[in-house]
Amino acid sequence: MVSVQQWTGREASALRAALRMSTRAFAEHLGVALRTVAKWESLGSETQPRPDTQAILDTALARADSAAHSRFEALLFPERKSARPADYETWTEDIERAVVCVGRQNFPFAATLLNRWLGSHDPHRLDDKGLYLYGRSLVLLGDLQRDQGAILGPLSARHSYLTARGMFSELDIPRRVAQTELSLAVVQEMSGQLEVSARQYELLAGDERLSPRDRARAQLWVGTALSKEGNNAYATNAMTAATRAFEDLGEPEDWSVAHQKLALAHRGAGDLKQALHCIDIARTTGTVDSPMQRVRLDTAYGHILLSDAATRNDGLSVLDQAAQVARQYGLSHQLRSIEGIRKGQQG
């Protein structure tokens, strides 16, 4: 973070530009006369603010967000560049590659792609484009950490998502902010904060910052959290509404996943016939064959089979297969879920 030892009109003008304020708005922001700001603009380094105004400028700089700091430094020191515009194209390509890797649960290579940028750039020295790419990279790192079960702590999905949300807020990108809040709600659910996450999902299900698809996902996840709490009747209603939304939106994969979630809610309510009907739909209509989705689907299927004494052995066999894939790809959260299901049956 750049600091100013002695303010002159040049630094004051750079701060105004970095904050993206007019001379009038900047004067009001600082609480000084408009003619004072005009003097800084016209005389530049030939004039120095009074000591009390120097302190006011120090405070204004300290309170500025990281994007403004980046712009301020770029204006004062144009020769300093932490990332060249040409780098951004390569960075964007690496983000796209990391998306594919995370989807396939190729976590080591995804981490390599992301950390080569996160580890080599100071976000405080990036311009808006660089800061956006940094935030995108953090979200993907959070997805990777979440899928591996690292959901809390300094090296966790929660920390990555919170940092990214702050960057998107500074950049004033409401859709990205809301998407990150949705990811944070998933982390809350995974950490056992079911009631809190259900409330957050419910708020986001009606949030216009999100796309219709993301709002439908939030609605589905309301049901997921409530189903885990045992409120299966309300959960089923929420999931059914989300399923219809996915059908209307023409989202077959989300529609299939919704049936998987519905199957577990029906199982929780004791309706094994409907649970088997829904899980059969999910197993025959899914189009994405990623390791994560296979484990989730087999875990749900095995859980339902375990609920009937006649199919208990089949259920254990399906869970064994799911656990093997989870271990192979480092899906520790899914593995813990499988172990929890087994223990529940033994109890």
TrEMBL record:
Domain of life: Bacteria
Protein name, as recorded: HTH cro/C1-type domain-containing protein
The species this protein was found in: Streptomyces longisporus
InterPro entries: Cro/C1-type_HTH (IPR001387), Lambda_DNA-bd_dom_sf (IPR010982), TPR-like_helical_dom_sf (IPR011990)
SUPFAM superfamilies: TPR-like (SSF48452)
